[in-house]
Each structure stands twice: as structure tokens, then as C-alpha cells.
Amino acid sequence: MKINSIVLNNFGSYEGETAFDTNAASGKNIVLIGGKNGAGKTTLFTAMRVCLYGYMSMGYKNFNAFYTRAISKQINNTAKLTKPTHASVSMQITLSNGRDLDIYELTRSWVLD
Q1: Each residue of 49-76: pLDDT tens digit?
Q2: Measured torsion, CA atoms of residues 5, 9, 12, 18, in degrees rounded to the nearest 10
Q3: How much is the pTM?
Q4: Beta-carbon neighbour count of residue 28 at 10 Å?
Q5: What is the rounded distance in angstroms from the CA atom of residue 13 to the CA atom of residue 45?
Q6: Quick one: three-class SS letters along the chain?
Q7: Residue 59 burial (C-beta neighbours within 10 Å; 0-12, 13-18, 19+)
Q8: Whole-number Å distance between alpha carbons of 76 and 11
Q9: Which of 79, 67, 80, 66 has its CA nearest to residue 108?
Q10: Side-chain half-sphere of 108: how many Cα atoms within 13 Å?
Q11: How many CA atoms lie within 13 A of 25 on its CB side?
Q12: Nearest-angstrom CA–CA distance, 7 and 112
């Protein structure tokens, strides 16, 4: 699996829409993500995990109130001042099916009233 891009909207410390292009530079195979403490590295990886696995990313066996509460805590506090609050995480990934490369767009979105 190759992650092509990640877009966060009002998730964690990322207010509004923030896009990450994760395509490696030409001829390179690795993308490094770095930053100072509090820059949002853990939030980015939490968002990726939630986008890929939903409620299971937080250890829950099904969609429930605990998951909903955990997601509510992940939504940007400034964005919560405007009701309804919209938040989302999107990823574009490329998967090999053995012969070809397939591109998928994954999106998880939430609305708080």
C-alpha cells in the first residue's frame, strides 16, 4: 500500500482543511514526517489510523457511544464553536492487485450538533 495524500478537516490541532502530499521525491522510496513537540505528528497518525480502521482503531469491537465520545474529543476545539461542526479525514491510497495498481479514496466524516 502506498499513501498518496492525506486531508484533515478540523481534526485535532488542524483547524480547517490541511492537505499532506505524501508522494516521495522522484527516485526516493521514503517520506519522513518531522516536527517539534506539539506540531501534530501524533494527530496525523491518529487520523490515518481512524480513517483506515474506524472504531477498531481505538480498540472497540463495534460502533458505540465510547467511540463517538473519543472522536468528539479529536475534533478541533475552535471548529466546535460553529454549529454544526464538520470534521473529516480522507486518504488516497494505491494498492496493487497483483497486475495493476488500484487507487482508492477513503473518507471518514463526522458532524457534531
Answers
A1: 999 999 999 999 999 999 999 999 999 9
A2: 50
A3: 0.87
A4: 9
A5: 12
A6: CEEEEEEEEEECCEEEEEEEECCCCCCCCCCCCCCCCCCCHHHHHHHHHHHHHHHHHHCCCCCCHHHHHHHHHHECCCHHHCCCEEEEEEEEEEEECCCCEEEEEEEEEEEEC
A7: exposed
A8: 5
A9: 67
A10: 18
A11: 1
A12: 19
**69, 94 Cβ separation under 8 angstroms:** no
**Which residue type, as a one-letter code, is found at position 76?**
N
Rounded to a whole number of angstroms, the distance between the first and last alpha carbons of the chain is: 35
Write out the three cell numbers for 93. 491510497
Q: Which residue type, as a one-letter code, is found at position 43? A: T
The span from the CA of 15 to the CA of 35, in Å, is 17
Nearest Cα neighbor of 89 from 56, 45, 58 is 45
Of all residues in the chain, the percent with pLDDT exceeding 90 is: 79
